[in-house]
Amino acid sequence: MLRLLLATNNPGKLHELVPLLGDVPLHIVTPHSLGLHLDVEETGTTYAENARLKAAAFAHASGLLTLADDSGLEVDALGGAPGIYSARYAGEAASDADRRAKLLHVLRQVPAPRRARFRCVIAIAQPGGAIDCFEGVCAGEIILEERGANGFGYDPVFYLPEHGCTMAELPSAVKNQMSHRARAAQAACLFLHKLAPHS
């Protein structure tokens, strides 16, 4: 069976991506399972550029079909920030809690609704070949108190009006149908299904 490398060491992303790709006829492997240690500098100016950088680097290093993603939170009141810098919003060594704390501090004087969206781009690189990208978006609002213990990143402050809860309060089965990463993965899966039989 053709192997697919998920180019991330982020346990939160792996926890979400593996079930999202569950029905694709590929054997999923991780950098850790391959003993592959690669730190790709995200120098792109868009999610797609960063996802492509990661996918290409891991595909070149492993010789495997590779999937990488880049995602971020875009807040309207901040002109779309933190955007591609979401993971580094409070500094390189900051925790998820640090990033949420900084965001809520910056938004404390902004009246509700603080409209925002999560955006994700998945890049799939074929070794020595093409790179294809797939995007997913999930709209919501930022609330000033953390709620929920599921998910990671900004999920506890990302409120979904249609569900009446934050992303971190959603059951995983629901999140895996409507999150930004889920929507990008749905498009990527269609591509992988077409690719797998011919590989």
What does this structure look like?
The protein is α+β, with helices and mostly antiparallel strands and 199 residues long. The protein has a single domain (3-198), classed as Maf protein. The protein is built from six helices and eight strands. Strands 1, 2, 3, 4, 5, 6, 7 and 8 form an eight-stranded mixed β-sheet that branches. Helix 1 (11-20) links the parallel strand 1 (3-6) and strand 2. The radius of gyration is 17 Å and the shape is globular. The N and C termini lie close together (9 Å).
Question: What percent of residues are in strands?
Answer: 15-25%
Quaternary form: single chain
Order of helices and strands: EHEHHEEHEEEEHH
Measured as a percent range, the helix fraction is: 25-40%
Second rung of CATH, namely the architecture: Alpha-Beta Complex
How many beta strands in the DSSP annotation? 8
What is the count of structural domains? 1
**Average pLDDT, to the nearest integer?**
93
Main beta sheet, described? 8 strands, mixed
Radius of gyration: 17 Å
Shape: globular
Q: What is the terminal separation in angstroms?
A: 9 Å
Q: What would CATH call the class? A: Alpha Beta
Low-confidence stretches: none
Structural class: alpha+beta
What is the CATH third-level topology name? Answer: Maf protein
Q: What's the tally of helices?
A: 6
